[in-house]
Design goal:
Blueprint lengths: L1 H7 L2 H10 L2 E3 L40 H4 L5 E3 L2 H12 L3 H14 L2 H25 L25 H16 L4 E2 L2 H21 L5 H18 L3 H10 L3 H14 L10 H25 L11 E2 L5 H37 L12 H30 L3
Parallel strand pairs: 3-4
Antiparallel strand pairs: 1-2
Helix pairs in contact: 4-8, 5-6, 5-13, 6-7, 6-12, 7-8, 7-9, 8-9, 11-12, 12-14, 13-14
Length: 393
């Protein structure tokens, strides 16, 4: 078992996958090397590695120093179709994608489904992020791996939260939709498997995770779905009807944000996790508020309802709702982010130009939590009411 785990965590396994998909690490010749005619070799980008693999020509250190790990070797793309496919797939796993696209299900299909997805996404992402920072397993080394992303390179690797999010969203929607919407379950299963597979493979292609990271991410998510599925309906009733629901949502999720595991260096995981918890808190309070106001914007026909026909008019209205809604969420984010940062900088006495202060826990956590709680509230309470006002719903 130990040998299998070491094999699945081997960066060379990721590098081989990249090369098979047409992504190749390039090498810089060693300093002072000359060709037979005394000239330096041409046609290669910077790097200083010689492969021991028979299919390439660089060597690499299995335990690179921090300086070596941060180097950005050049790479060559020999299959542009896979390159763009996997970059798009990787984008489907980012928090920004879900924060902007999950509300579109609320605005255009069924708020019930959006609520289920946000709840499960939050559970899975929180557990995945905490596991990363407790286990502290490194990402694949470069070289031999080509790394196409830099923002999350300071984060740890196992499990892959991209794989977890894609699997959770795909299969939570698949399991929740049959009671709400009429559709072909086999087609939905194919789409769910395809989406989760593409996002998972994209983490190997971009060089951000080992095979073990991705497999563990998918398996952990599958276990969490099986563990929580019997309680989804019970949680729905508590979240929507219990008078303590808003207090529990805000206090519990804020507590989890403040008690997130501390690291010896700054990482984006705490801020990203607080963002997700804030969105969930705002949506939870918003959906509870809608029930109290007596207007949930859920389908009024007998369930499951047929999918709306795809006509030019319905498509235009859907696009219009999505654009207006995203504009409202982005505007809310910008306004509340600025106000919360100004207030916190003033309260703690930090200079307004001190960008590093944003990384401090007392600034980052309340600012992000307040900002994205507001985003969740606007999404769940105000946007649909604005659609009614302007005739888009």
């Amino acid at each position: 078992m130990q040998q299998l785990l070491e094999l699945l965590q081997d960066p060379e396994l990721v590098a081989r996958f990249q090369r098979r998909c047409g992504l190749h690490l390039l090498q810089e010749p060693n300093r002072g090397s000359r060709t037979a005619n005394g000239e330096k070799p041409r046609g290669k980008l910077q790097g200083s590695w010689n492969n021991q693999d028979k299919n390439s020509n660089y060597t690499y250190n299995q335990n690179p120093s921090p300086a070596q790990a941060c180097r950005k070797p050049g790479f060559e793309v020999r299959n542009r179709l896979l390159y763009f496919l996997f970059l798009i797939s990787a984008g489907l796993g980012h928090e920004v994608f879900y924060i902007t696209c999950l509300p579109c299900i609320h605005w255009n299909l069924d708020p019930f489904l959006c609520r289920r997805l946000v709840n499960m996404w939050t559970v899975v992402m929180y557990i995945g992020q905490v596991m990363k920072d407790l286990l502290k397993l490194p990402r694949p080394a470069s070289p031999p791996v080509v790394k196409l992303e830099t923002r999350v390179d300071a984060e740890y690797g196992l499990p892959s939260t991209h794989a977890m999010a894609a699997t959770a969203i795909s299969f939570t929607l698949l399991l929740s939709a049959p009671s709400r919407v009429q559709f072909c379950f086999q087609a939905g299963l194919l789409i769910a498997v395809t989406m989760s597979a593409l996002v998972s493979l994209s983490r190997l292609y971009t060089g951000m995770h080992s095979v073990l990271d991705v497999i563990c991410g998918v398996l952990i998510t599958g276990f969490l779905i099986l563990l929580t599925y019997p309680y989804w309906e019970m949680f729905d009733r508590f979240q929507l009807t219990n008078p303590l629901s808003p207090i529990v949502a805000l206090s519990l999720l804020l507590f989890l944000s403040y008690t997130y595991p501390e690291l010896d260096h700054y990482s984006t995981t705490r801020g990203d996790t607080t963002t997700i918890l804030g969105v969930c808190a705002g949506c939870s309070v918003g959906y509870w508020t809608n029930v109290q106001l007596g207007h949930t914007f859920e389908p009024q026909e007998a369930l499951p309802v047929p999918l709306p026909p795809l006509t030019a008019l319905s498509l235009a209205r859907g696009v219009g709702r999505s654009l207006v809604g995203v504009f409202a969420l982005v505007g809310t984010r910008q306004i509340v982010k600025k106000l919360s940062l100004d207030l916190l900088y003033y309260w703690y006495g930090f200079p307004r130009m001190d960008e590093n202060a944003r990384r401090r826990k007392e600034i980052e956590v309340p600012s992000k939590f307040a900002t994205y709680t507001a985003v969740g509230l606007v999404n769940s309470i105000l946007v649909n009411r604005f659609f009614v006002l302007i005739g888009l719903l």
